[in-house]
Amino acid sequence: MESNPITTRLTLRSVQAFHRQQHVKHYVVVGGSSTIAQAIISELIEQDSSIKVIVISRSSCPDKLNIAQVHWTQSQYDEQSLSQWIKDYRDQNIVGVFICNGQLQSTTKRAEKSLSEFNCDSFLQSMTINCAIPLLALQQVILQISPQQRTTIVVFNARVGSISDNNLGGWYSYRAAKAALNMALKTAAIEFARTHKHLSLISFHPGTIDSPLSRPYQSRLKKGQLRLASDLAKQLLLIVKLSPANGELSFIDWRGDTIGW
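Given the sequence above, the corresponding structure tokens read:
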């Protein structure tokens, strides 16, 4: 039976398009509504116009990022939607992941200054946003990363997640959630060292960035302590570029300095 030359050409083009897509670098950003996340997306695109950025967020895509390179999905971060979202991008060349979810305090309740202000509902909400959702995102993303792929995963944390660095007290729920996230990431790093030997996993403290999260506390900051999200994005991408795939979890700040557990 003779082959159809038109069908053959179309099939060849499809195969060629598939292989081109395989070589396009894809980055994943979870928590796309945050000031820092959007700065990272913008910096990625500025550094490499050929890349694609896969984003998930509770909010809709801002106009400035409504471009062909950005694939934006809205979600409430439940397990089902997270699973479907990342499966839509199966077999992509994922080289970097940024999980940016986090919340210091809700709009109705400030972070605790003393134990007398501790509230179980606020604690559980903090654990969900600051620990459970990043883990759910990591759970789904790792399934789509080839064991042979060199990939860096950055999970946003905070210095207050360090037990050894806690010299001020306060912020019970936030501190506990960030410390729990570190323990979970350490456990994941042990697992990934067996399954994904070319992976770099970073628990990252961004410092104090000019954003809605830090705004209630900016008046107390020392001069020069508050920085721009765009500057952080540049520094973080440099850290990612230099990070070793050594099977260990790194807990570092925006300077690249190690933070004690």
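Residues 120-143 form the longest helix (24 residues). Try to locate this feature in the token string yourself.
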